[in-house]
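Supplementary notes (optional reading)

For those who missed the lab, this is the record we used. Protein: Peroxisomal membrane protein PEX16. Length: 368 residues.
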Amino acid sequence: MEAYKKWVRRNRDYVHSLESLANGLTWLLPERFSSSEIGPEAVTAFLGIITAINEHIIDSTPTHMHTNSTESSFPYSLCISALKDLETLVEVVAEHFYGNEKKWNFIAITEATKVLVRLALFHNHGYKMLLHGGETPNVENSANASSSPHSNGGFTKPRGHHGHGYLQRYPGQNPWNLEGRALSALSRFGDNARMVSDPTWLHRVQQQQAIMDPPTPVVKRHTLSSILSEKGLHGVLFVMGEVLFITRPFIYVLFIRKYGIRAWNPWFISLAVDLLGMGITSYATGSGDNRKHKQFHISASEKDELKRRKLLWALYLMRDPFFSKYTRQRLESTQKVLEPVPIIGFLTEKIIELITGAQTRYTYMSGS
């Protein structure tokens, strides 16, 4: 296993290219949306899990980690990614062997598992906003806390661990990454060398030690009590908004089990939970129109996450019963209009066929 890890870390670009090619080819597998879909979905799930494992190996490169990190003690992001890769296979297998109605029991179990893992991640990481449902570690500093590693002007403090993916995505935004602290240590070493009369060899040892073992900020992880005492109502509302976002898919599936996928009740209840959670989070973070009530800043990645969650609302157009009553009719009318046009008509037909096939799967349109 160690040999495989070393190979992946040395050839990360080659690995990413292979993964992209393999994942793209899965859409060309025969019987993609038919009764014999188990085989293609099993291949897709296997490739997805391999991709998640490789990403975890790259992000956990020892040279880019702090050895005293507690956030990496359990691979939450890897676990969530694996569950998301398996959920469609679970749906297909359950429908094949147990029927369309009983499959919702298995989907509910899958969603409940994801809820538990995400809540554990939310708790153990100090109630920080989950990025991409917990698949992406939230390690970016808040906007007003970037000037100092000990600053706590925002809702979160910098963690002691920044994975390799963080260094790649934000190379210039964190002056306290490995390179920045090494340069800082060199600068301090040069200043001290001119002011003290210690032996030269001692300075060389100190320099090497500063580069190899850069100082790690002392981090206090938030708890519910600390959030309540420091942020008051806004902190509690933030936690409530995140919990609503995490539990929304599970609530949706429970109401589908009770009323059926064609009923409006699950659709409206899920939308109401989404709107309520986003409204509470926006108010708590001041990311909406309530600027005067702003109590803490959120990082750029957290702002992008809120935008991503709003974009996910478009999936409600693809969920039954709205899709069956409204969206499908619009797609079919568009297809009829463009059908006489060469090439465009053919491509439109295939795209609509793909959309209609994907819509039949809960996991493709769940947004969870």
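If you only remember one thing from this example: Residues 170 and 324 are 43 Å apart (CA to CA).
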